[in-house]
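Input record (Table S2, row 238):
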Amino acid sequence: MPEKKESGKENRVSTGVPGLDELLSGGIPKGSLTLLTGTCGTGKTLLALQFIYNGAQEGESSIYVTFEETPESLKANAKIFGWDFEDLERKGKVFFVKYDPYHVEDIIEMLENAIRKTKARRVVIDSISALGMYVRDVPEIRKIIFGLSTVLHRLGCTTLMLSEILAEQKNLSRFGVEEFVADGVIVLYYTRADSQYSRSLAVWKLRGSDHSQKLHPYRITHKGLVVYPNEEAYAGGL
Ligand SMILES: Nc1ncnc2c1ncn2[C@@H]1O[C@H](COP(=O)(O)OP(=O)(O)OP(=O)(O)O)[C@@H](O)[C@H]1O
Ligand SMILES: [Mg+2]
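Output record (adenosine-5'-triphosphate complex):
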């Protein structure tokens, strides 16, 4: 477990996920961009919803950019966990944005305008891998990812950038740039040992900060993700 000494709490943003802040020396560094990566169904979207729900509880407004699920489906799923995003939308605390895939090249400008208008402090991009469905040209995608990271850093937003990796994939990102523009990387695993699947998580990097170097188990409960910072996960199959 990392020590908390250099982490002024005022410079950290709580993830809202029980146990996870402890692995990050107190939370995500304010204004940083974190890549949240993992195979499908590992709970990336849930973790991101939990993060912005927690932001609203702490008085920070958020923008949730979705390329895959509709805002309606995200809100309906969140309700199962007791997170009422419709109420937060009415109060102007959370804004869901579904981008038109055919105008993806405008996303950077649109996002910048939306952040300025709503004064959002937290941003979720769900997911960067979905860009690959709309933009075929990898250099073009890399340009978009780099442009997004520049704007989000400049505006000082604490950002979760989600990325889906394939089960057989060894590297952390789809387009080979995400982990480099990110200040931190959190990886979610779903692995099999005999007839049992288990979930585990690792903080791969966190620029300028101490962090846990271990693989920790997590569960998806009726209240969302819960990480067990004092337990080590079985790493078989990774
Ligand atoms: N109410 C629930 N209780 C327990 N587990 C649940 C519940 N609802 C969803 N899950 C688990 O969460 C997983 C889905 O999580 P989520 O949609 O956040 O994953 P994801 O990583 O975003 O997936 P994708 O890459 O497909 O977008 C489901 O596959 C299921 O295992
Ligand atoms: Mg998802």
